[in-house]
Amino acid sequence: MKIIQYSEITPTIFNNEKVKGVAARVVIGKSDGATNFCMRVFEITTGGNTPMHSHDWEHEMFYHAGQGEVFCDGKWNPVKAGSVVFIPGKVEHQIRNTGTVPLVIVCLVPSFAPEL
């Protein structure tokens, strides 16, 4: 069993020409003995974004705080605290924070996917 505050984990910061203002944490992963899924928490600063990308695996996201938009199926869709999003494999997607506070997202990916 593992019980922590996610903020106890040192984030990996992404900030370059494709990614702006993203702090990512693996909160449950291989090092914890998780064999089916990896749970990650992303914090995206105001005006920040993930890269536009796609990959073979699906993932599920729960939007814990803030508001923003997720690009999927060729269009931008609004999201806010309490939203749940399913992204199928091989679908191009991106997340951006359009609000005034950090956009906090819990994201699950299969164990065979890269943890970050």
Write the layout of secondary structure elements.
Layout lengths: L11 E3 L5 E9 L8 E13 L9 E7 L1 E6 L2 E6 L3 E4 L6 E4 L5 E8 L6
Antiparallel strand pairs: 1-2, 2-3, 3-9, 4-7, 4-9, 5-6, 5-8
Q: How would you sum up this structure, described in words?
A:
The chain is mainly β and 116 residues long. It has a single domain, classed as Sandwich (Jelly Rolls), CATH 2.60.120. It has no helices and nine strands. The strands form two sheets. A six-stranded antiparallel β-sheet has the order 1-2-3-9-4-7, with no helix packed on it. The protein has a three-stranded antiparallel β-sheet with strand order 6-5-8, with no helix packed on it. A hairpin with a 5-residue loop joins strand 1 and strand 2. The radius of gyration is 13 Å and the shape is globular. 23% of the residues are buried. The mean pLDDT is 97.
CATH class: Mainly Beta
What's the CATH architecture?
A: Sandwich
Helix coverage percent:
under 10%
Arithmetic mean of pLDDT: 97
Computed structural class? mainly beta
CA(first)-CA(last) distance: 22 Å
Report the β-strand fraction as a percent range: over 45%
Our count of domains comes out at 1
CATH superfamily membership = Jelly Rolls
User: Which spans of ≥5 residues are poorly predicted at pLDDT below 50?
Assistant: none
3D shape? globular
CATH topology: Jelly Rolls
Radius of gyration: 13 Å
Largest sheet: 6 strands, antiparallel
DSSP summary: helix tally: 0
Q: Count the strands? A: 9
In short:
This protein is mostly beta strands and 116 residues long.
List the keywords.
globular, three-stranded antiparallel beta sheet, six-stranded antiparallel beta sheet, Jelly Rolls, mainly beta, about 120 residues, about 0% helix
